[in-house]
Structure formats: structure tokens, C-alpha cells
Specification:
Blueprint lengths: L1 E12 L12 E11 L2 H6 L8 H14 L5 H15 L4 E8 L9 E8 L3
The chain binds the ligand Nc1nc2c(c(=O)[nH]1)N=C([C@H](O)[C@@H](O)CO)CN2.
The site of ligand LV4SOB2L has 9 residues, from helix 3.
Catalytic activity: 7,8-dihydroneopterin = 6-hydroxymethyl-7,8-dihydropterin + glycolaldehyde
InterPro entries: Dihydroneopterin_aldolase, FolB_dom, GTP-CH-I_C/QueF
Protein name: 7,8-dihydroneopterin aldolase
């Protein structure tokens, strides 16, 4: 299995459990590994034969900007479902960080793996 990856995708959104967090927009940072097979694209040089990371980023920016989740867990699960449903991704890892949530920490968040690695 090959991997198309995205690192450090920064998006501003409403997220958090506290009242003050419902009033502001905060940065989340996404790191993704998306299982795929790059051979056909490598042979044909056709973008339609691979997982287009620009299309993935555009869709995630749209989705996360419009969302208002309470927990990072929920956002991570919903992003994983979207990628599997809309981009036919069968295996992925996702790290979702809130770098500005805890001043004493560089970042907090979750890492998940979903689907079957082939
Ligand atoms: N496991 C989690 N812990 C916490 C979350 C979360 O989403 N998942 N959220 C918060 C607050 O919203 C925090 O980001 C601001 O202090 C606290 N713990």
C-alpha cells in the first residue's frame, strides 16, 4: 500500500467545550496519511488516477471551517468518515491538534487510525 499524505493543514474553526471557545475561532492542524495505490498514476501521469491531495485539502478546509464541534474526538471521527465516504479511502491515519488550547503545551489533540490497511 502506498500513502498520499498531508502535513500541517491549518484551519480556523469553532471548537471546544467551554463557553469562551464558542465565541472565537481557533486553529486546528491536521496531519493525514491516506492509503492508496500510486502505480497507475505513476504510469499514466493522470491526476484522475490518484488521490488528489489538493481536492482533499479543499474539501477539508470547507468542512472544518463550517463545523462547530465540541470535542476533537468528534471532529476527527467525522473527518475520517468524510474521507472514506467521499474519496473512497479504505485506510487512514489522522492527527488532529489544537496548538493554541493549552498555553503550556505545544499542542493537544488526538490521533486515530481507521479502515483496513491492505
Ligand atoms: N480529550 C479531550 N480533552 C479535552 C478536549 C477535547 O476535545 N478532547 N477539549 C477541551 C477544551 O475544549 C480545551 O481544548 C480548551 O481548554 C479540554 N479537554
Amino acid at each position: 500500500m502506498d500513502i498520499v499524505f498531508v502535513e500541517g493543514l491549518q484551519i480556523e474553526t469553532v471548537i471546544g467545550i467551554y463557553d469562551w471557545e464558542r465565541e472565537i475561532r481557533q486553529r486546528v492542524v491536521l496531519d493525514l496519511e491516506l492509503g492508496t495505490d500510486i502505480k497507475h498514476a505513476a504510469q499514466t501521469e493522470e491526476i484522475d488516477n490518484t488521490l488528489n491531495y489538493k481536492a482533499v485539502c479543499d474539501r477539508l478546509i470547507e468542512f472544518v471551517q463550517e463545523s462547530e464541534f465540541l470535542l476533537v474526538e468528534t471532529m476527527a471521527e467525522e473527518i475520517a468518515s468524510l474521507l472514506m465516504r467521499e474519496f473512497s479511502v479504505s485506510w487512514l491515519t489522522l492527527k488532529l491538534a489544537k496548538p493554541d488550547a493549552i498555553p503550556a503545551a505545544a499542542a493537544v489533540g488526538v490521533k486515530i487510525e481507521r479502515g483496513e490497511r491492505s
